[in-house]
Automatic annotation (TrEMBL):
Keywords: Cell membrane, Membrane, Transmembrane, Transmembrane helix. This is AhpA/YtjB family protein. It comes from the Bacteria. It is found in: Cell membrane. The keyword Cell membrane applies. Its main location: membrane. Belongs to the Smp family. The chain crosses the membrane at residues 17-35, 160-178.
Length: 197
């Protein structure tokens, strides 16, 4: 007399289909979480770059104020070109208090062209008043490149995310192989024991 009752094949098929559905849902959730993490990291890097550039721009406006106050236009031109040499910036313009351009970099163009839909690069305009003893001397405007691939930290972040994706794939493959191995072991042990009478 047998003590075990075989599971009907329809029930076994339903369980297997349910397991596959749960596995597919798990893979989708992991990949979705990975994409969201990558996007959040990119946004944080852009915010950090903007904050650092804002602080740098404030410091540079003090230098520009000194140069404007002492009528050193050559020095102002050199400062503009030096700032514009940064790979993180697209253009730099210094205006006087009336909005007339005093110094500008090579890529300088009207705002409708720089920030319009036809511009290939995504740019963020930053404007800093140039003041001395609360007197307005002018404005400094720069266009920050939002392409985080220019950032060394961003490149390290991308490498880290690729490693994480590789680990997720490896973990999935190891889990699949372990499941198959345990499944075969359990089937072999059942065969070796044989039916109980």
């Amino acid at each position: 007399m047998q003590n075990h009752i075989p599971i009907p094949s329809s029930t076994s098929s339903t369980i297997k289909l349910l397991q596959i559905a749960i596995a597919v849902m798990g893979i989708w959730l992991l990949l979705h979480s990975w994409v969201l993490t990558q996007q959040q990291g990119k946004l944080l890097l852009q915010q950090q770059s903007s904050q650092l550039m804002r602080e740098t721009l404030t410091a540079l406006s003090h230098t520009a104020a000194y140069l404007i106050e002492h009528d050193e236009l050559d020095g102002l031109e050199q400062l503009t070109q030096h700032i514009a040499a940064s790979p993180y910036l697209y253009d730099v313009v210094v205006y006087d208090a009336n909005g007339v351009r005093m110094s500008w970099s090579e890529n300088s163009a009207p705002a409708r062209l720089l920030y319009g839909p036809n511009q290939k690069e995504q740019l963020q305009a930053m404007v800093q008043p140039i003041t001395k003893d609360q007197q307005l001397l002018g404005y400094m405007k720069l266009s920050l490149r939002l392409d985080t691939s220019l950032n060394q930290i961003s490149m390290s972040w991308q490498q880290l995310m690729q490693q994480l994706l590789g680990m997720l794939i490896l973990a999935g493959a190891v889990g699949f192989l372990l499941r198959r191995g345990f499944s075969r072991l359990s089937r072999q042990s059942l065969r070796l024991r044989g039916p109980k009478s």
